[in-house]
Amino acid sequence: MKLRVAGIGAGRRAQAHYRALQAVENAEVIAICDVDAERAQQAAAPFAAATYADYRDMLDTEQPDAVYIITPPNMHAEQVEYAATQKAAIFVEKPVALSVLDARRIRMAVEQGGVLCCVGYQHRYGSLVARARELMAGRELGLARIWWYQGVPKVPWNLDSSQGGGQIVEQATHLLDLCRLLGGEVDNVFAEFGRSAWKDDKSFQNWDVYSGVFAFKTGAVGSVATTYALFFGLPLSSGLDIVSEEMLLRFSQGELQQITPHGTEVHAAADPSAEVRMAQAFLAAVDEDDPSLVQSSLDDALKTLALTLAFNRSTAESRPVSPEEIEAEIFA
Fold first, then answer.
1. CATH code (residue 108)
2. pLDDT band at 156, cuts 50/70/90?
3. What's the domain count of the chain?
4. Above pLDDT 90, what percent of the chain?
5. Is the domain of 22 the same as that of 148?
6. pLDDT digit string, tens, across residues 13-35
7. pLDDT tops 80 at residue 43
8. Are 164 and 72 in contact (CB under 8 A)?
9. CB distance 93 to 73 below 8 Å
10. For the CA atoms of 97, 108, 33, 12, what is the dihedral angle to 10 degrees?
11. What does R_g of the chain's alpha carbons equal in angstroms?
């Protein structure tokens, strides 16, 4: 059975999701909404889909089986709330929200609507993470190290932390999510953010240098360092190191390196892509009414959100923060 899918948003990230949906046999993209009519038309063209300027009008008219919400995170709450009233299954991009209040609104809407919800942590679905989980079986994580170096964001709403949340919440969230997946829950974090390269640029209302440390409940430790102060095209610009006894797993440049005393083995990502696998899993869950097929459920994604918001709260209040403190507010 073909599942009728609608999309809210037609920007850069949305394009990747729509390309993935083209590879899903039972997906029929019927409509795309964007405030930019030309952008909506370009995204809709491969599907001969209808276009809309107002997502409420689209959902009311089309009554899709599933809706993709791929918009700036400060818009997610109201869009999820409306989609849930229409009983459409919901895919929402990460970060789920930027605040505890919006996270609670989203969770309540999904719960009251009784709808399935998947969040866009695509790395969980990829072959590299599956291989890493196999290699970590029976091992204890000792150290995690995250880095993410780039220039000023190309996405306009990332220029303002009130719209994008900052680099930990918006980008490094992917790698912190993998830390939770591979190492378990985090006990506490401490962070310091600052403005370096762009402190005199009034159009840039964000931090451009980020540093944090964190401790897992198992006793393992981690660190994260990210920046907007550099430039695009930097070699090895982002990655995640996972350290266990005599083994280093390094995610970077779309591959996984397994480094041991016996040498280095490189694992390349296998087709289909993580985005395609995620779309397949989400729509299979919708079709079979089986939420267990989703590896990035809303409640689990909200725990990753709480972890990233803990870094923001730590730098704002100059104290260590437990993600559980924020989880308690979200899940209250």
1. 3.40.50.720
2. confident
3. 2
4. 94
5. no
6. 999 999 999 999 999 999 999 99
7. yes
8. yes
9. yes
10. 20
11. 20
Copy the structure tokens of residue 273.
């892509």
Q: How confident is the model at residue 136 (pLDDT cuts 50, 70, 90)?
A: very high
DSSP per position, 41-90: HHHHGGGT-EEES-HHHHHHHH--SEEEE-S-GGGHHHHHHHHHHTT-EE
Asked if residues 96 and 326 have their Cβ atoms less than 8 Å apart, the reply is no
Task: Give alpha helix (H) positions in the chain.
Answer: 12-22, 37-44, 55-62, 76-85, 100-113, 127-136, 161-164, 167-170, 173-183, 274-288, 298-317, 323-330
User: Tokens 């170096």 belong to which residue?
Assistant: 149
Match 């430790």 to its residue by tokens: 221
pLDDT confidence of residue 158: 83
Residues sharing a CB contact under 8 Å with residue 209, sequence separation 6 or more, in sequence order: 193, 194, 195, 196, 226, 227, 228, 229
Looking at the domain assignment, is residue 300 inside a domain? no
CB 228 within 8 A of CB 155: no
The answer as to whether 217 is a domain residue is yes
DSSP state of 152: S
Structural domain including 7 reads 3-123+274-295
Q: What is the mean pLDDT of residues 300-308?
A: 98
If one counts every other C-beta atom within 10 angstroms of the C-beta of residue 46, the result is 12
CA distances from 74 to 29, 47, 97, 265, 311 (A): 25, 28, 6, 41, 18
The per-residue pLDDT of the chain, averaged, comes to: 96
Check whether residue 74 and residue 134 sit in a common domain: no
Looking at the DSSP assignment, which residues form a beta bridge with residue 85?
A: none
Amino acid type, 66: A
Residues 257 and 199 in one domain: yes
Query: What does the alpha-carbon distance between residue 276 and residue 24 come to, in Å, rounded to a whole number?
Result: 7
The answer, as to whether pTM is greater than 0.90, is: yes
Is position 205 within any domain? Answer: yes
